Amino acid sequence: MSEAMSRREKLERWATVLEDCGATSLRPFHDLEFIAARDQDGLRVANSPLAMAYRDALLRQSGLGSDRFGDGVEFFGLSRRQAHRVLCSCGYLGTMRGTEVARRIRK
Question: Looking at the whole model, is its pTM more than 0.85?
Answer without folding.
Answer: yes
